[in-house]
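sry for the spam today, last one i promise. struct tokens for design, 202 residues
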């Protein structure tokens, strides 16, 4: 799934990485970043919402206080602090406006205490601690090769179809770069699945 309009219909048009090409204030674009199931396991505290481009982004959640917009140093983007208390409701990032000539990109909703390290440390330490007990892990679900829940997913055919780091969200289709970074972090062997529909060139 990608960005939707408030009525639940898919937001269009989007670029090849899934980002809205532009957003008008009367028709925002939103994407779920925490489901009602996963939100309660996150810590309470001060989260940071960051993005680049010309536009405004906010967070939609039942128990969130969103602060004012601040410019990042050297005109590298924007940030807002969000006082967030997780509960059993989904959390969305909402692009309220995005200028076509300099569209909003690189939206990140950062866990408390990770703003200074998020560009080099991709993974939640609690997640890593849980996985360190394993010496091998299968990446079939991370790649979206087989969706255990419902089977409604995209499967790669050509190499150009693969997930990329620049995609607006990885979801059930992690890029190979992230899978290998996780393997290196854990010092574990990844069991990578080649999609059944892949071409010989893939």
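last one done:
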């Amino acid at each position: 799934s990608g960005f939707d309009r408030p009525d639940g219909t898919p937001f269009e048009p989007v670029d090849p990485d899934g980002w809205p090409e532009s957003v008008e204030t009367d028709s925002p674009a939103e994407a779920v970043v925490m489901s009602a199931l996963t939100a309660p396991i996150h810590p309470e505290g001060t989260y940071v919402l960051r993005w680049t481009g010309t536009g405004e982004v906010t967070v939609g959640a039942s128990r969130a206080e969103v602060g004012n917009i601040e410019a990042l140093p050297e005109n590298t983007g924007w940030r807002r602090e969000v006082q967030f208390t997780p509960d059993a409701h989904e959390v969305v990032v909402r692009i309220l406006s995005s200028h076509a000539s300099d569209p909003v990109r690189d939206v990140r909703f950062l866990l408390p205490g990770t703003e200074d390290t998020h560009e080099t440390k991709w993974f939640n330490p609690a997640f890593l601690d849980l996985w360190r007990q394993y010496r091998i892990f299968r990446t079939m679900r991370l790649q979206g090769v087989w969706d255990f829940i419902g089977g409604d997913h995209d499967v790669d055919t050509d190499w150009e179809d693969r997930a990329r780091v620049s995609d607006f969200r990885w979801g059930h289709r992690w890029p190979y770069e992230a899978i290998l970074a996780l393997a290196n972090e854990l010092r574990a062997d990844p069991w990578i699945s080649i999609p059944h529909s892949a071409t010989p060139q893939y």
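The longest strand covers residues 45-52. ok im logging off now
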